Amino acid sequence: MSNQFSDRSRVVKIIFLVVGVLFIVRLAILQLFNPEYKEKAIMQSLRNVTQYPARGFIYDRHGELLVHNEAVYDLMVIPRMVKDLDTGYFCHCLNISREEFDEHMEKARKYSPYSASIFMKQISKEEYAKFENKMYRFKGFYISQRTLRIYDRPIAAQVLGYVGEVDQGDLDRDHYYKRGDYIGKSGLEKSYEEVLRGTKGQKIMHVDVHNREIGPYRNGELDTMPIEGCNLYTTLDANLQAYAEELMANKRGCVVALEPSTGEVLAMVSAPTYDPNLLVGRIRGKNYLMLNGDLAKPMLNRALMGQYPPGSIFKVAQSMVALDLGVISPETGFACDKSLVGCHNHPSARSVREAIKMSCNPYFYQVYRRVIQQGKYKNIYKDSQYGLTVWRNYMLRFGFGQKLDIDLPKSGLSTGNIPDTAYYNRWYGRERWAFSTIYSNSIGQGEVTVVPIQMANLAAIVANRGYYITPHVVRFYGPDSIRNDKYLERHETGIKKEYFDIAADGMFDVVHVPGGTARRARVDGLDICGKTGTAENYGNDHSVFICFAPKNDPKIALAVYVENAQGGGGTWAAPIAGLIIEKYLNGEVKRKDVEKMYKEINPCQKLPLTRRVKKQRKR
Amino acid sequence: MYQEKPKYDWLTIGLYIFIMLFGWLNIYAAGYDEEHAAVFDFSVQHGKQIIWIAIAALLAIIILYTEPRVFSNTAYAIYGIVMVLLVVTLFIATVTKGGKSWIDFGSFKFQPSEFAKFATALAVSKYLSAIGVDLKVMRTKVVTVALIAIPAALIFLQHDTGSALVFLGFVLPLYREGLSGNILVIGVSAIVLFVLALLVNKFILLGILVTLALLYLFVWLNKRTRNDYLHTLIVVASCALFVFSVDFVFNSILEPHQRERIDVLLGKTEDLQGSGYNVNQSKIAIGSGGIIGKGFLNGTLTKADFVPEQETDFIFCTVGEEWGFFGCTLLIVLYVILLQRLIVMAERQRSSFARVYGYSVASILFIHLFVNVGMVLGLVPVIGIPLPFFSYGGSSLLAFTILLFIFIRQDASKNQLL
To answer: Are A510 and A531 in contact (CB under 8 A)?
Structure first.
């Protein structure tokens, strides 16, 4: 039955037809005339797989391996592909509980049921060996290999540094890194990060519908190979480093040993120290918290970060400045007038050489006065300002008051303090200070602070009779033995060699002549030249000793700093330095009893090393 | 009473079976992985769909063996029951994908809104076929619109905007039964103006409208009466009002996700990770199919779960990727043939109940096809409604089967004396 509106059916039919045609046209546009979608589809079924390069090894100066890599295994899982798993047996093989299994599995499933995520991190080679041949029974699991740093000997922790996962700052700064990558966090691992890390490679893989890799894309022609990291050949002497660390056990302080002629760091000890292997692998997080929370600050490299009053070792530099300025002559003598500044009992020094030997405080008070108040201006304030500026310029040439350009992270480096006029103007007011205000600097107290590496450098300057080469830890790196030119450059103090000969003579007397302050550093058959220091501070005095040997053609220059040691530089630092030099120059230490004593004794037994005591002391 | 052997329209039944089985193949492909390759794995969707197909077949046979009068006699009762169900759903529904349209029956879920479509079709047909009912009368218009608007509003309250929009399809049967054709013109114009208002500066748009009006008045018309001026003025004024209310509707009435979907469609934003993700992925999947497709079970994007809702609302992607341009065109041609056939069948009915019902069936199927395929192809904003007989889902398959087979049954006995 049709009615008056039956011709409207045509309109409806046309509407249906038009929509059908519209769809087919649209389909033709999408499927026939638009290759863009095909490419996008291909891109979606490709996956970039990063190829990690091996990190460079680190060797000592004799080619002994200090750091290498060891394979560890991450157990990966693709949750959707796990099937017919004998969970009990699996847990048994991995040595985990059922609860842990469920927890790991849930985490992985949450991340994605289709793509791989880490089920268990950093399984050691030994653990992996136990279930390697059973892997075929665990469908959906596979092993991904990566490497961990292994420190062959538990030494030089603060110098070598450690490696850790990148943080947000690293990611923002350098787009090379992706989340989860590893980066050097301190020490050489950080300062040579770009050398050690190599270059990541990339494989482009076809993935199937389950995101499984099924083969290389375009036969791998777009892939890049990873480039291995460069090896570092350091200047450290592993045996000397280990020996120095043994001597510094139970103490706080540091040792820096340099080869004066090259500026190479032979040993750099910061005590207390730790085994660098503690900051590797699964145990890292826990140990990091422990070390970081330790009040003795084992992760701090005192040799570079510590800013200490130098004490009497500073007198060596002071006398060189005064001689070069001509305000004293080598034969100038001053009476030991204890009313100026306290001193120990000894005859008055009749020359610079004797003054160094006896470490006479009033003598260097006079020396420093002549440096600061040279009489160029009538106004003593202006005169002191002038003198201080002249003196400071000398000090900078000794490497004091600035960051030595060592090849360790700049952030872990202190400048020390050589005050300038602005410093005192700020403190006392313009023209409100003169020599009498600042005389403590003369004997290495007062406002002056020095970093241990700078102290060792001072010993090297005297050993070289007037110049230094910036201390450095890496001799060369990579297959092409790349050296840094800045570590070949001589930094001259501009002071005559003869004056340094006088300093060397004085330092020889310190160790060898009756009345010298460091007789305990003496080693039969070695002409060690040294200078003691006893730096006053709030706790017990710090014990300091710098030295070099042999006197002519020095092979080693050394600074030893023992914090809060009872007794002066002669009591603690000097004998330790003597043992280190004996070890280095003779190859072995004959004085076993002395060695044993200094290894075992804790010079700061009164000093709290634990949190509990520290708290009490604060009250 | 004279009883004739029913003559079933086998072309329609054949198209139905073909589309349904082709749909199942694509559901199987979309969820395919080696673990669940077994056809009769009832834990996954393609396995469940087999059960639904079996039930649908059973229902179809039952309907074909039922007296055709039963449906017209119980039309209001069915309508009433479904309306009650829709109200009940509002209170006991479990929230699924942001909507409250599903009732949980243990392991199966049931969506009453799917069944509201054929119930409403029955009720509207029944009402319009009553003697003395004329769509020119205001009362008839009001009742008819109410019959359609009640389920639409209830479904809208369930946050199932897509299913509610389906009820706009009833415009076609009403048009056929005498509603002014202007309704279609106004509807299309409104959509065009809405889109233009979002894309083009409103004052430029208004300028164009005024220019068109002037051209119509002074170029097209030879003689102008006073009424011509008046009508043109009214049209232009309402257009202007509409254009300037678009912003309000768009920003204040639409939900944020709906706004985003429209923006994505119009190319105003390209949020490929967020609201634009589905459509972008779906276009990539379809586009990558090319002329002949990647072949059955060889679609890579289909299986890597790049396209969400792959088995249900976005099932057409799988066709596009695996069967290519040929497969898609075939499917669309089959749907268009089915729709044309339904109109032909509706026109040959002797009872106006069957005719109105036939138009309703065709229109409901058409709206689904238009919105679903249009959405997948990026021509219509994302509105989640299934592709009839094709998408995964028990409620929709059963409801569409009932909808279609009631009409096939009516048609089979069209020559029976009333």
So the answer is: yes
User: For chain B, what is the largest distance between any 2 Cα atoms, rounded to a whole number of angstroms?
Assistant: 76
Residues of B in contact with A34 (CB under 8 A): 287
Break chain A into its structural domains and give their ranges: 39-80+147-234, 238-614
| Dist. CA A200–CA A197, nearest whole Å | 8
Instruction: List b or e across A387-415, with b for residues whose CB sees 16 or more CB atoms inside 10 angstroms.
Output: bbebbbebbebbbbbeebbbbbbeebbbe
**A-B Cβ pairs (cutoff 8 Å, strict):** 131
Instruction: Express each pLDDT in A156-178 by its tens digit.
Output: 999 999 998 888 888 888 888 88
pLDDT at A213: 66
Q: Which of A12, A24, A25, A44 to mutate to test the interface with B (most CBs of B within 10 A)?
A: A12
pTM, two decimals, is: 0.61
Per-residue pLDDT tens digits for A579-615: 999 999 998 888 888 888 888 877 655 433 334 334 4
Of the candidates B175, B304, B359, the beta carbon closest to that of A209 is on: B304
Report chain B residues whose CB lies below 8 A from the CB of A20. 332-333, 335-336
Closest residue by Cα to residue B177 from B357, B412, B408, B414: B357
CATH architecture of A238-614: 3-Layer(aba) Sandwich (3.40)
Partner-chain residue, chosen from A20, A36, A80, that has the shortest CB–CB distance to B332:
A20
Burial class (CB in 10 A: 0-12, 13-18, 19+), A532: buried
Q: Is the pLDDT at B358 greater than 90, yes or no? A: yes
Nearest CA in chain A to B293: A31
Q: Is the dihedral of CA A237, A242, A247, A253 positive or negative?
A: positive
Structure tokens at A360: 């006479």
Angstrom CA distances, B279 to A105, A280, A357, B166, B314, stand at: 33, 47, 88, 21, 9
pLDDT digits (tens, 9 = 90+) for A539-573: 778 889 999 989 999 999 999 999 887 766 677 88
What's the count of helices (H) and strands (E) in chain B, helices before strands? 17, 3
ipTM for this prediction:
0.92
Task: Measure the CA dihedral A400/A404/A408/A409, to 10°.
Answer: 80
Q: How far apart are CA B399 and CA B404, in angstroms?
A: 9
Question: Is A209 close to B288, i.e. CB distance below 8 A?
Answer: no
Which residues of chain A does B378 touch, with a Cβ-Cβ cutoff of 8 Å? 26
Only one residue has tokens 């003869």, namely A498
pLDDT tens for B75-97 read 999 999 999 999 998 888 777 66
First to last CA, chain B: 9
Q: pLDDT grade, residue A208 (50/70/90)?
A: low
Query: Which residue among B181, B289, B346 sits closest to A31, beta carbon to beta carbon?
Result: B289
Between these two residues, A321 and B134, which has the higher pLDDT value? A321
CA distance A111 to chain B (A): 15
- When mean pLDDT is compared across A291-295, A304-308, B74-78, B243-247, the lowest value belongs to B243-247
DSSP states along B37-88: --TT-TTSHHHHHHHHHHHHHHHHHHHHTS-THHHHHSHHHHHHHHHHHHHH
Residues of A in contact with B336 (CB under 8 A): 16-17, 19-20
Q: Which numeric CATH code is attached to A39-80+147-234?
A: 3.90.1310.10
CA distance A213 to chain B (A): 13
CB pair distance less than 8 Å for B175 and A211? no
Q: Are A544 and A533 contacting, i.e. CB atoms less than 8 angstroms apart?
A: yes
